[in-house]
Every structure is written in structure tokens, then in C-alpha cells.
């Protein structure tokens, strides 16, 4: 068929009309009513009802529904719908569940799904298959698709090459608006949605871009090179996805051109994929702080337990070192057990103050508020000042409390002194540890916290018990 | 001027051509070279050089540059450039710095800046002004702009009304593609960029949308209602921005229609603003965990110190409660000081295991992996199982270490027993505390952590010292 009529993308025209106002209360996840109806239909084995219930749903919502079903119901549901699921639904599923679904599908079915997806989503799906199935699926695809996907699999994970789709709109720098519109109306194999026209020279090298809205508002005889933006940032195919996310955020992009080593346009990254990346990176940052993996929530209990062990081992080593420090003062404590009562305070205050500093520093590194050109001395002095100010306040409060509680003014001074020492250290170490880790190529988000609390625990106990040994015994 | 020629947006045509390949190494923030050159020019008071250095930069990069200058240089820089800064640069500045710049501008200058911005950014800027200046700026604007901005200021912060821009493209449901294109070519006051055409009925109520790419590919005589998507989610103007972000993420949107109480189209939210929201919310989630505000990094030391006090007070109360628990066992400790050496271990392991559970639960609540319809019992049992598995492993290891260290097998059993008790409690409380807080309308992201560690500290000390008192003395 030459010159296709442009229609709504396949699969959408059979979904009924829904112009509805968003209700915040019912926005997130499947409604209770839907879950109940689905469960009832599954229990009754009523396949047509199940199908009619999911028919009006967006693929992303079907994926959500599957994630919210109980394991037994989910199995039933998938047995019924597996071969009727839209490709996009499968691609929206949480990774663990997607594997479950895909493992049950024949290579021919998978090939069909892969064909319907954009190249970036298709590669995501392919890379989870075992080598044999992957090859079978690839073999059953048309040569061009196969070449794109095989190349896609060679790009490093988390690179621009994995985020981009190969379907793109490249317009010759010789064309005017009229020629472009005629091309767009007649071309097959264009992406479903696109937002910018990339203008390329004879070598397929991009020379500028025209937002669709501007192209649409321009008269037919205007040359595209006359209205194009000449400020165009080309993304090399091996760029890390974090850098891609930065570009989109910084410059408010909706799409960006990806080029190969010779500077030729080979793909386009669109903002919907970048939104996913930003979300994933934020989730990772958050979970890494406490040593939890991003698959933690959906993994079975034994796997979750195993994934969390590493961080608990670090905690264990940390406290054993702290215990060793305390054991050096067993004599003092035996002589004066009130010290055991008060000693956790200094460690806890230093640890928590330090974790605040670490979090701010790690976040500033991640958002590039701190760059290699930043004035590091100013950062450190600020945190030393902050640490000192709060240390003095809390030392006075706690010194008074401790002195009054045990009726011993010397004890109050020891507690206050140790507190000042430890909180100032927390301000210093909380800045310096992540900065040094970042400089020598370690990830401060995962290691800095436990490392810091080991130091604040040990120093907290050492300062408090040491001062007590010197002045109170 | 009727029927404007469509050109690149104002301010862009005088920036020189930059088609350049992104270099990851030099991507983030201003380069060292640029900073050095700017500082040299500032020191020499060479205004033309400063201006020529910033001329080729994107407004977002100029804002970054300003943020990276030392305070004294920044003052010099702003004195020179304040009146020449692009509106977009000012709107990109970090909030604290933006206030600094805006405070120095006359109402007439501000009015000019406001006129150049989209309504959402203009409202952001206006709301930071004192009431007097705000009124003066508003008074000097054309009536329609003023009405939009005054209404914008009445919408709650963090609502769809604040995110939307009033400039939008509404197309009659009676038009065909040709009529639409003619309208777009001739209309003034359209937004700079738009991605979807919203089709409205005679009452201005949206009935569907057409992505620009599809409109562009359709022949002139085709009616828009024949190619429009009828699946359209209308965002009420008072919707929370978090819900808006969810919509964009879930359905891969690039723009969304905002409606008033009568369902009439009054604005459009575009994805670039949503990317900013997603980023801000992620940052808040991360910083809230440790009781740090999102202005922490750029605030002066005394302010930062003050902002962090609240969380340190919570820590203080927490440890004082724990100290009180320990004080009940002063006699036992005096009798057997080895207990003081080992007692931090149980508390630390329980606390850290619990913080892992809390983080996963809070995140799952935020991403709506847990909804009101989720099976809460299954979550709790999973965490109890995870807690028990890791508790047994670590109880055996630590029991052995403790028993061997002090040559007392009973001490090993007491340590192991207390550990199991506290880590299972951590699994239970780490799930239940955030779930209950969420149910009764408290924010689990800010309060759940400190609350949990208070319980694991107290129970950890109590279980260990209590068991020791029962079995060892």
C-alpha cells in the first residue's frame, strides 16, 4: 500500500470513547470495584466478562491491574489473557512479572509483540529472553527490523542507544514546508508520535530542528532551513542515560537526536522515556541510601532477605568496631554505670547530624550543584559552621540534662564536650567522605552513609568514655 | 499586525549557530574555562567581555553560571547584567537567588519580564514579590494578561492551575485539517511550542485531541473529529501536581488539558513542567527522610543549622527515651560491664533493618504500588518472614561472636535472642507504622523513620538487658 491514510494507531480505534475528568481519589491503580469484578469473573471462569472488563483500559492500567492481583488470581488472569495482551501492556509490566509472562509465550507470538513495539521497548523485552529464544524471535523478523534490534542489543544498558527509537523523521535541508508535508503524508514507517523535525544534510548529519508546531504554522513555500533552530545538541549513542535526562531537564526538550560515531542521525529519544529514566534514577538514589535494591518490593521474601543482607553486614561490622571501642573502657563503666546510660546519646546525635550532611552532599553531587569547579572549601566551612552551631545548642541542653539527672556537673561537661566534638566531626566528615568517594570514582550514594556512621559511633563513644575516664575517675 | 510570519521565538535568532555533539565530561554546569574567563572579566570590570561570554549560552546555562559564581563575583555579575538578563534566565534561577535578583528590579522592568514568560512561570515569579510590587506590576500589564495572572495567583500552590499555561490551541470540532492549518498560520497569541491540538465543542468543552504529528500527516479535507483520540483525561484545575505527574508518567503524555469547574478548557500543562515536578518531588522524598529541607544546600549556614534542628530534637528525644530504658538496668550493667559493650549491637541491627523496611514501604506508597485495595496482610507477613530469616542468620553469627569474645555461652544466647526479637519487630513496625500514618492522613515520609528507630532502640536495649538480667545475674 503506497501512501497510507493516516489514522489513529492500531489497537486504539476499538477502545470506546473516554473523555473523562480525572478524579484524584480514583486516579492511582485499579479501583476496588474493578478488582472485585475481575476476581469474581476469574472465580467463575467467565472469560468474556474478564475480556470486556479490560477492553476499555489503557495498556498501562492493564499492567497495573495485573500487578495488583493476588498471585493465584494473576496466574488465572494470565492464562486467559496471555495471548490477547497488547504489546504495550507487556512492555509496561514490572520486570519480574514481564519475565513471567514472556517465558510462557512461543517465539512466534513474541515476534508479533516485538513488531508492534518501538525499537527501544522491543530491545528491553528481547534482552530478558534466553539466548535461544532471542535468536528464534530475531530470525522470524524482517531483515531491517532485525538489524535495528541486533544493533540495539549491542549498546550498553542505560545508554542513549537503548533509550532511542530508530523510527524517526529526517528531512532534507533542501526541502520546503510543502515538500515536507507531502513526504509526511505519504511516508510509511514513521513513528506513531513525533514532536520535532530533524533537518539533515546529504550525509545524514543533523543541521537543525524544527518543532512541529512551527512547521505547521509556516507557509508551504518556506524553506525549513529558514525556520529551523540552529541550537541543536546531538547525543552520541553511547551517552549515559543520566546525562540524557540532564539534557531534557535543563533545556526543556521533548525529543533529542542521537548520532553515531560519524555524527549521522540514527535515532531519536522522546521525553516519555526520559520521564521513566528520571523516575528510576530517583528511586535508585532513595533506596540505595539504605542498601535496598529497586526490585525489593516485588521480589519474594527469601530474595528480599538476601538482597538486604549486604547492608546489615555493614551495620554489623560497624557496631562490632564500636563495641570494640567501648570494651576498652569496660573498667570505667564498671566503676561508673551511668556512663552506659548516657553513652548512646553522643553517638546517635553525631550519626544523625552526619547523615543529614551526607544526604545533602550526595544529592548536590547528583544534581550537579557541586561540580569539579565548585569551591569545596566553602562547602566544608559551611558544614563545619552548621555543625558547630547545632553542637553548642545541643551540648548545653544535654549537658544540663545529664548533669541534673545524675546530680554530677562533671558528667554534664563530659557529655557536652563529647557532643561538640562529634557533631563538628559529622559536619566535616559528612562533606568530605562523599566528595572524596566521588573524586576517586566510588559511588557516594551507596557507601558514604555506613562509613560515616561507623566513624561517628566510634568517635562518639571514644570521646565520651575517654573524657569520662580522664576527668571523672 | 494581522497574520504574523511565524519565526523562531524572540531572543533566539541572535544566538549563534550551535550544532554540537554533547560531551558528557563537559555537560554539567559551566566549564572551568568559562568560570575563569568570567571571573577575569569581572575583576577587570570589562562589561563587553562578560556580555559576549554569556551571549551564546542557553538561559538555563546562564542561570547555572550565576549559581556557581562566588558570592562577591555574583554580586558584580548581577550589577552588570541584571537589566539585560533574559526573562527565561531569571525564571530558571534557584528560588533564593531569584528573589535576590527580582528584589533589585523596578516594577516596570519586572512587568517586561513577566510579559515574556508563559503564564505558569510568570505566576511563579509574581508570587514571590511583596504585595505592593506585585500590584504595581499587575497594574502595568494589559487587561487580559493581568486577569490570567491574578486568577493564576488564586490557585493553590502545587496545583494543576499553577502548572498550566493559559496560552493554548483550541480547535472547533467543526473544522477540518485545512481550516485548522489556516487558523494556526494566522493566529497570534499562540504558545511558542505545542504538541497536541485540543478539539472543543461550542461550549469550549474538550471532546478529543489530535497529536500534531497526526494532524500534519492528514489531508486538508479531513475533519479533525475523524482522526482525534477520544481517550482524553481532563485535569481539573485544582488537581494536585503529584497526580498530574502520575498521569504524564502512566500514559506517556506530552501535554494535558486543564478544565475549570464547568468542564471548559482553560489551560494546558506541558511535559517540561512535569519533569520539573517529578524531580522536585523525588528530591523532597529523599531529603525528607533525614529531615532536611530542599532549600538546605543554597541557604546560608545559620539558616541551614536552624532548618536541621527539628530532626535533631527528634533524635535527642529518641535517645533520651533509650537512655531511660538503659538506666533501669544500671545495676545489672554495674555488675556486668560487658553488657554495655554489646548492647549497641541489638539496637543498631534492629534500627537499620527497620529503616530498610520503612523506606521500601514509604516508596511503595508514593509510587502507588501499595493502594487502599492492596492486601496489607500479605505485605506484613512478607516483612515478618524477611525479618525472621535475617534475624536468625545474624543471631547465630553474633551470638557466636559475643559468646566467644567474653567466653560466656549464656551471653551469646542472650544477644542472639534479643536480636531475633528486635529484627522481627523491625519488619512488623517498619510496615505497619507507615501504613497507619498514611491511613490517618500523616505523611509517612517525614515521621515514620524517627518513630521506628525510637522503638527499635528501646526494644533493643530492653530485650538485651532484660534477658541478661533474667538469665545472667
TrEMBL record, chains A, B:
- UniProt biased composition (Basic and acidic residues): 1-17
Q: Where is this region: Disordered?
A: 1-26
- What CDD domains has UniProt attached to this entry? CBS_pair_Mg_transporter
Q: Which UniProt keywords apply?
A: CBS domain, Cell membrane, Magnesium, Membrane, Metal-binding, Transmembrane, Transmembrane helix, Transport
Identify the residues that the record assigns to the CBS domain, covering every copy.
228-284
Q: Does the keyword Nucleotidyltransferase apply?
A: no
Q: Where are the transmembrane segments?
A: 311-329, 341-366, 387-407, 413-436, 448-472
Its annotated compartments are:
Cell membrane; Membrane
Pfam families the UniProt entry points to = CBS, MgtE, MgtE_N
| Broad class of where this protein is predominantly found | membrane
Report the superkingdom from the record. Bacteria
Q: What NCBIfam families does UniProt report for this protein, alphabetically?
A: mgtE
Name the family the entry cites. Answer: Belongs to the SLC41A transporter family.
What's this chain's function?
Answer: Acts as a magnesium transporter.
* Description of how the protein assembles with itself and partners: Homodimer.
- Its recorded name reads Magnesium transporter MgtE
Per the UniProt record, the source organism is Dongia rigui
User: Taxonomic classification, please?
Assistant: Bacteria, Pseudomonadati, Pseudomonadota, Alphaproteobacteria, Rhodospirillales
Gene label = mgtE
